[in-house]
Amino acid sequence: MSIDPREYSIQMKLKDISTFIPVMSYKGGVGKTTISTLLSLCLADVGYSVSLLDLDFTNPCVHRMLGIDVKKLMPKEEKGIFPVEIENIGVMSIAFFTKDNPTPLRGAELNDVFKELLSITAWGKLDFLILDMPPGLSDVSLDVLKYFKRDLYPLIVSSSSRLAIVPTINLFKLMKELKLSPIGVVINGGIGTMSIYREVAETYLREGLEVIGSIEKDEKLEEVIGSPMELRRTLAYASIKKVCFRALSTTKKVAL
Amino acid sequence: MVHEWALAESIVNYLSLELPGKKAEKVVIGLGRLQSIEQDILDFALRELLVQADIHVEEITYVIIEPKLRCRACGYEWKILPEELNEEIAEMIHFVPEAIHSFLTCPRCGSRDFEIEEGRGITIVEVIK
């Protein structure tokens, strides 16, 4: 007999969180971290209590978007660990412990990190926990579906690229098979070309996917990574507001 | 109280759900040394939480499991003790043992693709009802 007790704490730790939004894509490099971070900032700016969990354990980037120096900062410890507070968002990431060093992990190890972080993090009472997901539907994504059993509303991110079309449709189909209600698809115009944006959006509509917004290409965005104040002044942040209100509507926090 | 409390909570949550009658003669906890769990603190937290959960356990014992690593690239096996590590690295591993991949490589081939075969963290080894 050898039992892993951590699994028995995960639900308890999540019990005071109203809504979970995993920001997902089947394909990598479409802007999940950007959208997760901007959505978190937007929800916090509207007045909701929000935390952001970076689940991309082998390539965590949320801390870089928000300008958190993981070499200096550590989560506070008190009967568990607390997310690091910045700009009214609680942030939890493996990067606080790996200190931005390369961290190759296989499936079982990803599962262990997931269980460790989720069983010791004290989230407190939250309106939203935003999950910045790794690409695809493998270990960590499957763990989210296993352990986050209620109030789970995926947000699917696509680039404005033909390469993203089939993976996005497949991800949407999988969500439906799992009886989940995705908030919808956001097309990131910053990745790919806007010239085929219409083709991508129309294909999604034909396939029954709901496009709830797009992120405008914003040359300035790259320059302000690491500065939450400046991030709020970007076209990308302005674009995410529509997505934010749609998320609020879908998760029944407000009526549009 | 440090994060041993959260680990104790996991054990008590397991016992709350899986222990009929909320009574056990003995619970054996495995402590992997890699995570440097403070046994005294864990034990204190566990006893406090058991009282709060109204679970009666006659005896709690601990089995210390030495860490054993194995390189997946070259097959080399080696042992490591937390006290041999830099204090900051040991602290990171204390919170998330997989952080070891960020700081250590295989002593023979230099790969970071190794596994923690034994002695990672907390397990429930045995519950005698």
From TrEMBL, chain B:
A GO BP entry: protein maturation
Organism domain of life: Archaea
Entries under Pfam families matching the protein: HypA (PF01155)
Keywords for this protein: Metal-binding, Nickel, Zinc
A single GO molecular function term of this UniProt record: nickel cation binding
Alphabetical list of Gene3D superfamilies matching this protein: 2.20.28.10
Alphabetized InterPro entries for the sequence: HypA/HybF
Protein name, entry field: Hydrogenase nickel incorporation protein HypA
